[in-house]
Structures are given as C-alpha cells and as structure tokens.
Amino acid sequence: MNIRKYYYGLVLILALISTTVNAQNKVSFQQAVGIGYFTAHQYNGFNFGEYEARLNYAFSSTSSISLNCRLGIGYGRNEYNSNAKDSFDIYEIRFLPVGLSASFKGLFSYNFGNAATRRAYKKLGGAIGFGYSAYGGSRSIDDWSQEVDPEGICIDGKFNFPIGNTSWTFNANYTFKTYSYSEKSSDINGIFSCSILYNINTPIHPKMKKRHRL
Asked: Scanning 80, 94, 185, 196, which has its CA 20 to 30 A from the CA of 15?
C-alpha cells in the first residue's frame, strides 16, 4: 500500500483550498491525536497512534465543512486456525504478535457544535463524512503470515464531547473494500474502526478578559 500518494494528494488539495479562500478569514486548521481499534474478518488490532489534520471552511462559529487527513499506525495481535474443530476456535484470538499495521483516511465532512471550529465553544457536537480509506498490515492464519491491504470508500461519524475545558472525540468509521493488491485479502469485505481523539487547542469555554483595576 503506497500511503504517500494519498497523503501528498490531500496535502495539495488542502493547500489549494487554503490559498483560494483564506482572504475570507473563514479557514481554520485543526489537529487531533489519539488511539484506536480496527476489526475485520480474521483481522484486527489496535492503533497506538492516530493523527488527524483538518482544514475547515466555516459557515458560522459552530458549523463547518472540512477536508480531513487521518493517519494511523498500530500492531495486530491475532492468530487464527482455519482447521479448528469447531467454529468458535476459528475466531479465537491467541494474542500473539503479528506485525505493524498502517492506515490512511481522506475524508470530506460536515462538522457542527463542539470542535466544528476552534471557537465553537459548545459542549457537544459531531460530524458526518465520507471519503477513501486504505489499510496495510499482516495477519497470521495457520501459522503463516499474510499481507492484508484492503482499501475503498468509507463512511465516518464523530461524537464530540468535553472533559474539563478540553474537547474529545469518539470516532467510528466503516470502510467498504473495493480494491486490494493482495488476493489474500479476498475474505475481507470491510473494516470497522473506532478511535478516541483529543482535539488540540480546542477549548470549550472562551478565555475571559481580565478587568483592569484602578
């Protein structure tokens, strides 16, 4: 999976949009970091690092549309035995290391409420979006390591909530596999992933101006 081609393409799009509309002072850049989990047929694991960069075009202080780039890196911890005696054992997770995994998501989203912009100042919010997602990693079936690299159209949803004066996101995403470089991913029809993200520099309450005493 060549993640770089997706990354460079999205960066170019973000730069062009930023140049076009920046004069209107409606463009903002936001970032988020977190951890996540992904699962599919005989393939699952954890992302110990996720990063999202988002370029917003604001309709108001509490609503925007955005282009998102989300990168994840993780580690699969599963091994399956297709010759097991019963169906339960086929999906038994043995918790053995398999290998590094990586993911890329390019998304177009509508954002509202909390974290829709840096100055939304709302307790709750969310986002709905769609885009393209690509995964790369490996899994072990019958003691053989197999490369998996499904990719395709995805749908994405967010629920944004506060902790103290900070903004956090629960994100859920489903990717419909439309292409794979490896025939060994033929049994995977889609991948579900979820994440917990911290929205950097996105307070819930505006800063209060200090009053000068005479």
From this structure: 196
